[in-house]
Design brief:
CATH superfamily: Vaccinia Virus protein VP39
Largest sheet: 7 strands, mixed
Oligomer: single chain
Bound molecules: S-adenosylmethionine
Radius of gyration: 16 Å
Structural class: alpha/beta
Number of domains: 1
Distance between the termini: 51 Å
Strand order of the largest sheet: 7-6-5-8-9-11-10
Amino acid sequence: MKPWLLLGRAQPPGGGAELLLYQRDSEFSLKADNQELMNSRVYGSEEAMARLGCQNLGKRPGARVLIGGLGMGYSVRTALDTLGEDARVVVAELVPEVAEWNRGVLAELAGRPLDDRRTELHETDVAELIMAARGDYDAILLDVDNGAEAMVREGNNWLYSLPGLTAAHGALRRGGVLAVWSAVPQPAFVKRLRRAGFGVDEVKVRAHGRSSRKGGAHHVVWVAKRG
Ligand SMILES: C[S@@+](CC[C@H](N)C(=O)[O-])C[C@H]1O[C@@H](n2cnc3c(N)ncnc32)[C@H](O)[C@@H]1O
């Protein structure tokens, strides 16, 4: 088997884990220090998060969705494919190099979602956009760590705290949905979502997606609805 080739490295602004982009043949891997954040062979659950978060929005005029972060663009692509022509997909990506890689070597993986005129990319912390919003979004999709616990930078813990979830609740329209990706179930986080005022479904999704063979690993998407 060919060895992995290091294509790029980046430090999140303000500090945190170093992000490393590797390639082996047609496979790409994005790591935070030595832990894998995203791999181009396994993206079924990232797509599922976007489908679950955007379901019922396909026909909603002017639907507005916030996605944090960009990764390899699979969640953004699925949101775009689910939403209507006049939708707006606001993408927050903390690390500018990740955006640059998505305009270059990673661009074709998810069919160039940054080139879609409905995509609005902000090279910033998704927390900034959540704090600035008041009932602005129909859905917020969060996949910035490997679950409801900081991995890329310590500050991400705010997103999963009661103040962070209360801010996300306020950033959504009534009936809006916060969808959060995780590698594993986290019962304490579900309780916190409920304390922030959300109605919560924990959905088990297949890591390799709907079309793969039966079985395989599963991940979790919490679908939290503002009542
Ligand atoms: C697991 S990847 C996202 C994978 C993505 N769902 C996909 O479909 O490819 C996590 C991404 O979130 C970014 N990120 C981490 N913390 C962030 C934050 N606070 N705000 C915005 N982006 C963040 C990382 O740089 C990385 O690009």
